[in-house]
Amino acid sequence: MPNVTVVPADRLIIVDGEALRFDFPAPVNLRALQWDGALRTGHVEFTDDYNQSLDATLYAEEVAPFAALHKAEKARLSTEAETAEAARFAEYNSENARFIRLRAARDARVADTDYLVMPDYPLDNADMVTVRAYRQALRDLPQQDGTPWDGGGEETPWPVLAR
User: Which residues have C-beta within 8 Å of that of residue 99, sequence separation ≥ 6?
Assistant: First the structure.
């Protein structure tokens, strides 16, 4: 049996140390419930000063429903997180997102060569033609067949600056 703590006013159910806050049904006068799974005992406190000791014979009626609510909420949260992650993954892998990443990676590579085309950079004409061809190949990359590939990752056929 698990350890269970219930505090309806705080919308709190704790099962084996895992706290979840959510709306759940509880008796209006329930202040708190505590159950020690190892000792198989517990107690219930009510707002009208009525308290009740719990033993294993009352577990199914008094404690188990709260443990079941906790389990259901945990499953709901897990499903919600999985759905959100699947949506995030789908958006990340969408064609538009891959094009955005490809263009950003391409722009960074073009920017990395900006200094080479500055008028005062000592580059002979043959090397300047090579650099300009490389930069143009980078700018033409998004128009190639197969774009956006993997968005600028390993599958992208990056041109190489041969110097």
Answer: 142, 147, 148, 151
pLDDT of residue 122: 94
Q: Is 21 helix (H, G, I), strand (E, B) or coil?
A: strand
Q: Could you report the per-residue pLDDT of 102-120, keeping only the tens digit for each? A: 999 999 999 999 999 999 9
On whether the pTM is more than 0.85, the answer is no
Phi, psi of 86 (to 5 degrees): -65, -40
Q: What backbone phi and psi angles, to 5 degrees, belong to 123?
A: -135, 130
What SS3 string covers 22-37?
Answer: CCCCCCCCEEEEEEEC
CA distance 23 to 28: 13
Question: Which of 57, 52, 79, 65 lies closest to 8, judged by CA?
Answer: 65
